[in-house]
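in:
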């Protein structure tokens, strides 16, 4: 496929408020719809939603194999910033623009054009439908600040929970290349630092955080430090929040690890007791995360905690809160700098309030 037309839009009812985006990909003649994308993104601003719409549209165009893209939006800000004529001043826009530019670089040619809202009606409709969904979910999408909120759903849990806001660290060079990154210590990229600061602002606006607890690894510490600075709190390091030890697979891609140890890699993908060569099994990760959970509940019982860690420890804490089987570790996706929330009650009950929220990015 050579050329496509991408139309994208986003909006927020309240700015910030319940937000959503829409994007549509047409063929070169602007007659046939090739793809649609839309989603509610929780509470966000108009500009964040518009950038999310652009990112969704460019992602869809790339998936279709397009070489050339004509982008049409009614957001003067996004069009001018992506065209390089306006500077990006607001810190919330920096990681979004970086992601959009990364996607734009995949095409041999891309052009951004501002159009009146009436000429962007298809994407506008998709965005409004997504905002309808965001508005209907807003009351229950994220818990109130007080940790003494009623237990959600039908858990029957009693007492004041220890609420853990689980924040994954920002982007590193290894995550860009999709390499196993366990006990190594790559720094955050420029985008990763922007993601960390965006998450920090989100946590700061929420407030009512009693402590910031972090993995000792640098990428998590740097992410935690950004939030701690906003909250005016120190960072407490817990060694148990380390990422999985991938042993001999550290720094390898999925394909490289599979080629190096085909049989072990195959079994590792379905059996949580299997260790990477020289590394740590997911069962062993669960053992130390059980101790982490118990330590944090004992130390900060009934409080809201920001816990900054890595993808496997966060998945494991969510798995424990859900009392889910091992398949969750393989099927649950957590984005970089995403926020999830798990609650652990004094009577042994638990609940999950939020998973993989990236509305702050």
């Amino acid at each position: 496929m050579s050329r496509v037309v991408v139309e994208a839009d986003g909006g927020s009812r309240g700015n910030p408020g319940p937000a959503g985006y829409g994007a549509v990909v047409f063929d070169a003649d602007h007659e046939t719809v090739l793809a649609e994308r839309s989603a509610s993104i929780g509470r966000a601003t108009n500009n964040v939603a518009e950038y999310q719409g652009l990112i969704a549209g460019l992602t869809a165009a790339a998936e279709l194999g397009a070489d050339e893209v004509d982008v049409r939006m009614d957001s003067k800000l996004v069009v001018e910033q992506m065209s390089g004529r306006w500077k990006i001043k607001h810190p919330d826009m920096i990681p979004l623009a970086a992601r959009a530019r990364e996607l734009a670089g995949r095409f041999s040619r891309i052009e951004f054009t501002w159009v009146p809202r009436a000429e962007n009606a298809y994407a506008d409709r998709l965005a409004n439908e997504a905002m309808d969904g965001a508005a209907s979910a807003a009351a229950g999408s994220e818990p109130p600040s007080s940790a003494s909120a009623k237990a959600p759903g039908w858990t029957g849990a009693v007492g004041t929970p220890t609420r853990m806001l689980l924040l994954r660290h920002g982007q590193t060079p290894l995550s860009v290349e999709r390499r196993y990154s366990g006990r190594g210590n790559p720094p955050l990229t420029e985008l990763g630092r922007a993601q960390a600061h965006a998450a920090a602002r989100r946590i700061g606006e929420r407030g009512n955080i009693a402590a910031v607890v972090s993995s000792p690894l640098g990428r998590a510490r740097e992410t935690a430090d950004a939030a701690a600075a906003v909250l005016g709190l120190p960072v407490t390091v817990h060694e148990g929040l380390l990422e999985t030890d991938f042993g001999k697979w550290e720094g390898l891609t999925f394909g490289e690890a599979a080629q190096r140890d085909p049989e072990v890699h195959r079994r590792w993908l379905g059996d949580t007791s299997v260790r990477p060569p020289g590394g740590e099994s997911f069962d062993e990760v669960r053992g130390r995360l059980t101790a982490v959970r118990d330590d944090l509940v004992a130390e900060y019982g009934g409080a809201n905690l920001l816990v900054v860690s890595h993808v496997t420890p966060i998945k494991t804490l969510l798995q424990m809160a859900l009392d889910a089987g091992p398949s969750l570790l393989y099927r649950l996706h957590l984005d970089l700098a995403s926020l999830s929330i798990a609650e652990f009650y004094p009577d042994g009950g638990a609940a999950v309030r939020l998973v993989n929220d990236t509305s702050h990015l």
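note: Residues 137-149 have pLDDT under 50 and may be disordered.
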